[in-house]
Amino acid sequence: MSDKYLEIANSTWGKKIFTAIGLPDPVPLRREDARQPHKLAGPVLMGASQGALFASSIGASIEAAGVELHDQSMEAKGHLLFDASGIASAEQSAELYSFFNQHIKSVMDSGRVVIVGQKPSAVADADRATVQRGLVGFVKSVAKEIGRKGATVNLILVDSGGEQALEAPVRFLLSAGSAFMNAQVLTVASPVAAMDADWVGPLTGKSVLVTGAARGIGLAISQTMARDGATVIGVDVPQSQDDLVAAMDSIGGLSLPLDITDADAAEKIRDFCLSHSTTLHAVVHNAGVTRDKMLSRMTAHQWDLLMQINLGAVQRINKALLETELLDSGGKIVGVASISGIAGNIGQTNYAFSKAAIIGMVESLAEPCAARGITINGVAPGFIETQMTAAIPFVTRQMGRRLSSLGQGGLPIDVAEVIGFFVSPQAAGINGNMVRVCGQSLLGA
Ligand code: NAD
Questions:
Q1: Which residue's C-alpha comes closest to atom 10 of ligand 1?
Q2: Which domain holds residue 300?
């Protein structure tokens, strides 16, 4: 669904009027160029604190990836990258201030700011850990300052051994693919599996399973995975079989029309995957529904039906897949939560419960999965333009779009790109992360 406000705000006359009367005029976000996905566009100015731990290896790897890297200033506007891992005291935090005070204005429209620090719990010295934690507040505030340019700021915290797997999150956060991921913290740890893959077609030769693939975010996930080289196995309800088959045919994927709440659905999915390959690279639990009602009016059926689709089926599918070795050594599981599961929402007790539980699933399965070479991560989308959000009443829908630092709703592709990053083999150090893809929505922030 189109966002008329965004279109008018960016027309020649709309811009003048909106500026004159002081209305917010969000910048349309730059997204991946379908012909050259994963290409890092625009110069990057890089700075580092004294004693920074990762700057030289990050600089070398992104320069090798073809990025125009600067260390003083840039003529054209671009992106900023700062290794703050050396900051160990309140006094030394002035180095962070000084770099951004000088250069924040050189961030381009839809530009990226990426800051790298150390995961406080992995730092032995308490004073240093305390100061590193400060980076989170800094990132969230910078995001609020530059969001109106469509620019994003994210923080990577390096856990022990994470330096080996740092290139993938740095490259993703500098790319157009992270357009709607804003003010988030990604933790990178020691990789749980091999990371060798092509940066352009990271999923070449791999199969991925996507539930709810016939439309909306699930369709975008399927298209993004296919773009990255995967054969997609798309699952959706039998009533959507025509849409599912058309979607999968258009990307060379396989269709499995199935209600994931059927008693034998998990086994059917596992057997279907086994009949096509001895390995499954990833499962993306995207299918989900809302059944909004105030708690006193919600029927038991509305609670149970939603809980089975959003949570029960997800757990059963994981169990069936993990009983086999289909996902072992390099496999990926991705859960789709919601900011409703973080902030709560009126009339969504059932939905928020199910989505908070998906966050719990990522947290509780991260360790056992890592032991088998599997990663599990999740996204919590904010307001994304789909049929689900088109059904929201007009005023609430407008508020949902505007109440974020980027001043607009995201597109299904924005969620899909983050999931594409999670399932790329190079992201083997990203495990147990739940990131909001919400443009820094004020809800639950
Ligand atoms: P959508 O309604 O457009 O698509 C959901 C898909 O899941 C549909 O194709 C539907 O047929 C399928 N599905 C539903 N029940 C199923 C079942 N029992 N078995 C198999 N397939 C089933 O929704 P969307 O907006 O694309 O949302 C996708 C996911 O993202 C959901 O988990 C949703 O909760 C989550 N999410 C969406 C938003 C948003 O703003 N759109 C925000 C936060 C979270």
A1: 212
A2: 207-437
